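FAQ: What does a ligand-bound record look like?

Like this one, built around NAP:
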Amino acid sequence: MRVLILGGTTEASAIARALAGDVRFAPVLSLAGRTRAPAAPPIPWRIGGFGGVAGLAAYLRQEGVAALIDATHPFAARMKQNAVQAAAEADVPRVTVLRPAWQPEAGDRWIAAATMADAFAALGPTPRRVFLTVGQKELSPFHGPHRYLVRSVDPPAILPPNATLITARGPFAAAAEQALLVAHGIEIVVSKNAGGSATEGKLTAARALGLPVVMVARPAPPEGPLVPDAAAALAWLEHQRARRGV
Ligand code: NAP
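The answer part, i.e. the structure of the complex:
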């Protein structure tokens, strides 16, 4: 059974590992190509955009895909929408893996932001030392008078002025995150509400240090079936297989 997994996430990698060697399935993992040196998956994979809805629908038909697992990042809104439309067009069953959003806990000092521009505005007029972990595509709203510690997997094309760059790939442990915040004299953190454990350490660290976190809200989820993790996506896949009687 041909399965297309839209990836670039921990969940997609976990699904790929679970399906590797399972002869009932012929999975393909698709990566956007944003990361320069992605870890090689244990299943066949492809890289790069499909060419919008029409391109993805054509791929689904040409490859005889019988199930589409959209395990892209919660903030990959365009791809999620493309998956909804292309799966409908090609009449392929689809599920979206959407990990639960982070929720504030006792001791958290979160400032809600709807957009990156709101997040920048929330930093206020007084110069602050900011830990900026919003991804390399989202940096353009951020500028003076603040000093930024930017962390991303690959170097961004353009950095804000007054920025120090760290390139690193998670997971990040809370203790190391706390040491990083202290070492750089960070006064406020800006984060997307990505959810998941791999990058949660910065929130634990900010809580321990009493630092505010500007938390950028997620885009609206796509329509259709949602599952919270890789295990639930695999259960959905088993169900699709049983329905097809293969
Ligand atoms: P996006 O804005 O929703 O998608 C932009 C375009 O990138 C899509 O229209 C599609 O091009 C291509 N694309 C995205 N995901 C793809 C995939 N898995 N396979 C093939 N093409 C894909 O996506 P994004 O926010 O730039 O994210 C890009 C990738 O990074 C995704 O795989 C996502 O899971 C991962 N990621 C994103 C974030 C984040 O914060 N946004 C964080 C961690 C990882 P075509 O229209 O040409 O098909």
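Follow-up question: can I read anything off the structure? Yes, for example: The chain has a mean pLDDT of 96.
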